[in-house]
Amino acid sequence: MPEDLTVEHERAYKGLEALARLVEDSSGALQPAGEDVRPFFVAWGMLANVHRQAAAVVLLHRQGFGHETAPNRRSMLEHAAQVWWLAEDGPDAVDSMNHALQYKQRKLREATDSAGITYDTTIADAAVVLPRSRAQTYNNMGHLLQRIGAPLHAIYAGESLLSHATLTSAERFYAGVDAETVHLLSEPQYPQHAPSPDGRAPYIALVLTWFAMSCFNQLLAGQPWSAELQLVARETGIEDIAAHTNGAH
């Protein structure tokens, strides 16, 4: 492994540990900034998901499965984007998420009915018809990421190609030597001189976790994490990216 990547990995591990400690040490004392506490609670659930996905990324990467963390990285990006949305649009974002959940619950009920699967009808029947929200369009992850910034949308598109059953994910496991010869591979291979996201998985996890926590900090009374987040950004060498993501608010 190149020495610069080894240093980057160690910084990422330390940064993620510092962010996890910050959450653990302060979770019992966190207070929402607004009167409507729904964005605070939903964003906390999203942030908790980001932290657990980051732990999974590190665990898999250390065991040589960095390539296989693409779905985790994609999930982290989705959850971090939702935290950003909640920090920006607050109750409108929650209303939009509830509207989307209503639709998904209806589709789930249709699917289970079609499959003859039994379920608790009292829960299914409890759904109410919700009006559309002005922020409804951002339930579409592509629209939300484009609003946050085009680079995040591009990264998400790339991670999706690696996460799903696509030609891109398949071709990582075979390589053409010439027009008539193809080598089948048991480990993923990326094009020469092309940066492979699996090698930088811990760094990606750090940046996304930092971004999610920075956004959640906007929902906290007094924004108590500001100084600690700046310190982590400085010590892990992600200050430039941190400054850019802060500008998205």
Question: Could you please describe the fold and organization of this structure?
Answer:
By secondary structure, the chain is mainly α. It has one domain (3-139, 197-246). The chain is 65% helix and 2% strand. It is built from 11 helices and 2 strands; from the N terminus they run ααααααααββααα. The chain has helices at 3-26, 38-62, 70-89, 91-115, 121-125, 141-148, 150-163, 167-171, 201-217, 226-236, 239-246; strands at 174-176, 182-184. A hairpin with a 5-residue loop joins β1 and β2. The longest helix has 25 residues, at 38-62.
Topology diagram in text:
Layout (H helix, E strand, L loop, with lengths): L2 H24 L11 H25 L7 H20 L1 H25 L5 H5 L15 H8 L1 H14 L3 H5 L2 E3 L5 E3 L16 H17 L8 H11 L2 H8 L3
Antiparallel strand pairs: 1-2
Pfam families: DUF5677 (PF18928)
